[in-house]
Amino acid sequence: MKTYCECHGHIFMNGADYREGMAAHKNGPDLSLIRAHLAACRDSGITYFRDGGDALGVSLAARELAAEYGIRYVTPAFAIHRKGRYGGIVGYEYETLSEYRQLLARARREGADFIKLMFSGILYFDTYSHLSCPPLPGEEIHALVDIAHGEGFAVMAHVNGPEALRAALEAGTDSIEHGYFMDEEDLPLLSEGRTVWVPTMAAIAPFAGRPGCSAEVVAETLRRQGELLRRAAALGALIATGSDSGAVGVPHGAGIHTEEALLTNALGEDAPAVLARGNRALLARFPGGK
Ligand SMILES: [Zn+2]
Questions:
Q1: Closest by CA position to 201, among listed 8, 3, 4, 2
Q2: CB neighbours (10 Å) of residue 84?
Q3: Beta partners for 40?
Q4: In a domain, 13, yes or no
Q5: Nearest-CA neighbor of 139 among 171, 114, 169?
Q6: Which residues are in the CB-under-5-Å shell of ion ligand 1?
Q7: Is residue 34 part of a domain?
Q8: Beta carbons within 8 Å of 113's beta carbon, 6+ residues apart
Q9: How far, in Å, is the centroid of ligand 1 from the Cα of 116?
Q10: Ligand 1 centroid, distance to 172 Cα (angstroms)
Q11: Ligand 1 centroid distance, CA of 11 (Å)
Q12: Distance of CA 122 from the midpoint of ligand 1 (Å)
């Protein structure tokens, strides 16, 4: 059986309805639901799962069970965002760098394998490149990454938009998640640095049929992402497979098959070699087992 690396998923969500997904764990992680999601991953050939975090302890509980399903599981425990910005559904907020350091200490206490940071908003599909909130300033992105690295943590960062992406790449972020609307001029920064790009195309495709979303904007967003990925791959950039499974329209297990198909469509015949190299680099950076 072919095996897969799910380099970006959220085991606490159910792929259909995020409120319902969160409600299921509100009195503590629902272990039977977690087991059902892990079984779906195993049955789809997933042997590595990197969680993007949650504020309910679900990914930490999943890590305890994952070995039974033959899955190497890594988690940041929760994601970290700046107060007033996107990220409340997956983690906790800081207002000052001293509060941020406290969250790093909490992540360490809870057994985080790495740190997950939120640098920008999510995509809206009413108009092209519309993001839900402004990005963090470059200096703040540098400070957050430097402090986490200083504490010995690798950094997984949710980031979209050219300014935040440039800052994330310059700061040496270990992996950039989504990475939509990257400036083409920054592709060498990506390929010459150590950052792994996890483009999560499977999470974008399902928006096409939703209210308030333009199918043309969704198609253009995916087309442009595919074009940049192809150019990045030609420059030798590291690209890894992650579907954002658990997000609405992205079922656990099946999501990674969709992601591989979308990436293969974008990268062409080089896709298997490019993705194998990217996944190897990501696993080396986020090995878990702390
Ligand atoms: Zn995510």
A1: 8
A2: 11
A3: none
A4: no
A5: 171
A6: 52, 244
A7: no
A8: 74, 75, 76, 286, 287, 288, 289, 290
A9: 10
A10: 20
A11: 10
A12: 10
Question: What total number of domains does the chain contain?
Answer: 1
CB crowding 129-168: b at 16 or more within 10 Å, else e? eebeeebbebebbbebbebbbeeebbbbbbbbbbbbbbbb
Domain membership of residue 38 (yes or no) is: no
Cα separations in angstroms, 158 against 78, 143, 171, 180, 273 = 13, 16, 14, 10, 25
pLDDT tens, residue order, the chain (290 aa): 899 999 999 999 999 988 898 899 999 999 999 999 999 999 999 999 999 999 999 999 999 999 999 999 999 999 999 999 999 889 999 999 999 999 999 999 999 999 999 999 988 988 888 988 889 999 999 999 999 999 999 999 999 999 999 999 999 999 999 999 999 999 999 999 989 999 999 999 999 888 999 999 999 999 999 999 999 999 999 999 999 999 999 999 999 999 999 999 999 999 999 999 999 999 999 998 75
Q: What is the CATH number of the domain that holds 88?
A: 3.20.20.140
- Tokens 């062409």 correspond to 268
Distance 189 CA to ligand 1 centre (A): 23
Q: What is the 192 CA–ligand 1 centroid distance (Å)?
A: 25
Whether 164 contacts 142, CB under 8 Å:
no
Using an 8 Å Cβ cutoff, are 111 and 59 in contact? no
Does this model's pTM top 0.70? My answer is yes
